[in-house]
Amino acid sequence: xxxxxxxxxxxxxxxxxxxxxxxxxxxxxxxxxxxxxxxxxxxxxxxxxxxxxxxxxxxxxxxxxxxxxxxxxxxxxxxxxxxxxxxxxxxxxxxxxxxxxxxxxxx
Amino acid sequence: xxxxxxxxxxxxxxxxxxxxxxxxxxxxxxxxxxxxxxxxxxxxxxxxxxxxxxxxxxxxxxxxxxxxxxxxxxxxxxxxxxxxxxxxxxxxxxxxxxxxxxxxxxxxxxxxxxxxxxxxx
Lengths: 107, 121
Fold this sequence. Notes:
The complex is a heterodimer of chains A (107) and B (121).
Chain A: E1 9-12, E2 18-23, E3 33-37, E4 44-47, E5 61-66, E6 69-74, E7 83-90, E8 96-98, E9 102-106
Parallel strand pairs in A: 1-9
Antiparallel strand pairs in A: 2-6, 3-4, 3-7, 5-6, 7-8, 7-9
Chain B: E1 3-7, E2 10-12, E3 18-25, E4 34-39, E5 45-51, E6 58-60, E7 68-73, E8 78-83, E9 92-99, E10 108-111, E11 115-119
């Protein structure tokens, strides 16, 4: 079965750039999405098709993908960005797979 | 604004069954594929099942295939998940989510607030 691997945690200082990676076999050949989830809340889509932002998502969120790795980048990270982040792709035409999630700490 | 409201969760004994519902509003439900995703306490997101816009195609994760059944009633704008032979490890918040209308590798663009299922004797 297809698997996505994320680091459990990433720390960043306010105003700096945070990068969260997601690894999977030939992931660059697929599209990757990213979701933000704050404690006690539902996930929110922040990036789709590797690098597109839904309406309402701040420009500081961006994405890229190449080879076996997709990356979510948050430029000028704010305290409000402290959340869990999950990558997601389609393992096949009919099944979805999520990464294990990364806890972003802003301190 | 798109709304997805799950219901039907609760405390259930191991081996029993439960049916979850997800009521959709403020969009044309019958045009969209839908998914169920769960999240065990303190754990990550775990995809469960998907159903096509018209209900003709379904797919499941290996972990629940044969025990869970996804279905929909487009006349009622409602998505369902039948959970059979429940195990303690099925304890989780269950979310319904809408699959965006894009041609390939669609994201899940809207999520409900979730309903908690606790399997315990």
